[in-house]
TrEMBL record:
<feature type="modified residue" description="4-aspartylphosphate">
    <location>
        <position position="56"/>
    </location>
</feature>
<dbReference type="Pfam" id="PF04397">
    <property type="entry name" value="LytTR"/>
</dbReference>
<dbReference type="GO" id="GO:0003677">
    <property type="term" value="F:DNA binding"/>
</dbReference>
<dbReference type="Pfam" id="PF00072">
    <property type="entry name" value="Response_reg"/>
</dbReference>
<dbReference type="InterPro" id="IPR001789">
    <property type="entry name" value="Sig_transdc_resp-reg_receiver"/>
</dbReference>
<protein>
    <submittedName>
        <fullName>Two-component system-Response regulator</fullName>
    </submittedName>
</protein>
<dbReference type="InterPro" id="IPR007492">
    <property type="entry name" value="LytTR_DNA-bd_dom"/>
</dbReference>
<dbReference type="InterPro" id="IPR011006">
    <property type="entry name" value="CheY-like_superfamily"/>
</dbReference>
<dbReference type="InterPro" id="IPR050595">
    <property type="entry name" value="Bact_response_regulator"/>
</dbReference>
<feature type="domain" description="HTH LytTR-type">
    <location>
        <begin position="145"/>
        <end position="243"/>
    </location>
</feature>
<feature type="domain" description="Response regulatory">
    <location>
        <begin position="6"/>
        <end position="121"/>
    </location>
</feature>
<dbReference type="GO" id="GO:0000160">
    <property type="term" value="P:phosphorelay signal transduction system"/>
</dbReference>
<keyword id="KW-0597">Phosphoprotein</keyword>
Length: 244
């Protein structure tokens, strides 16, 4: 199970901050704190560093959001998402120098917040789970597969596979411990694995049925990753789930 992404909210409007905190909590993120001043944010990051900084550009006090981001970056590299009511070019150019991961323009809605934070959280996950490339064959044996990597066959338990994603003539196998990019199509990979556990839910995705967290009409979720569910596969999936 993946650990929760930890987020520090730096916002001097407490009504907005409380609303953001509630929404992030409902989405499964851990809010490490809400602070209203840049100086407090710097101290908080030193003592309890989060994974993401959700940082208002127009903070009151001696440090605005951009200056706060610069000060934090002198001692800690943390992805920044700026909150701003200003859309002028000068503010954007100044904030851009701190290399933020994203901007959220006020007023924003729940979906905008959810998608922006999810994109940044996904980048963090990728950094923590480096992709390993394999351009040779693989062997399937009972409850595991062996992928040739760095001159040796590396074991991957089928139960550790979350899902597989197509990328033209390649296939990315996403596991709980890392990713493998294989030089075979998703169709070929699907044919090699037991259909009792794995199912194609979209032209670009095969999922491990035992890893499903959410099933909606048009998508699935595994470890907070949204996976599209095609209409052609939806009814069959529901039948499979009922049978299980």
């Amino acid at each position: 199970m993946e650990r929760e992404v930890r987020i520090l909210i730096v916002e001097d409007d407490m009504i907005i901050a409380a609303n953001i905190s509630l929404q992030l909590g409902n989405l499964g993120y851990e809010v490490t704190g809400i602070v209203t001043r840049g100086e407090e944010a710097i101290l908080h990051v030193r003592e309890n560093p989060p994974d993401i900084l959700l940082l208002d550009i127009n903070l009151k006090g001696s440090l605005n959001g951009i200056e706060t981001a610069k000060a934090i970056q002198t001692f800690k590299d943390i992805p920044v998402i700026f909150l701003t009511a200003n859309t002028d070019e000068a503010t954007f150019a100044s904030a851009k120098k701190t290399r933020p991961k994203a901007f959220i323009t006020k007023p924003f809605n729940k979906l905008n917040l959810q998608r922006t934070v999810e994109l940044v959280a996904d980048q963090i996950w990728v950094q923590e789970h480096p992709v390993r490339h394999s351009f040779l064959d693989l062997e399937v044996l009972g409850d595991r597969i062996f992928i040739r990597y760095n001159g040796k066959m590396e074991k991957v338990l089928l139960d550790d596979i979350l899902y597989m994603e197509a990328d033209r003539n390649y296939c990315t196998v996403v596991t709980e411990n890392g990713n493998f990019v294989l030089s075979c199509t998703l169709k070929t990979m699907q044919e090699r694995l037991p259909n009792s556990s794995f199912m194609r839910v979209h032209r670009s995705y095969v999922v491990n049925l035992s890893k499903l967290d959410v099933i909606a009409d048009d998508h699935l979720e595994i470890n907070r990753k949204a996976i599209p569910l095609s209409k052609a596969n939806r009814d069959f999936l529901f039948k499979r789930i009922q049978a299980i």
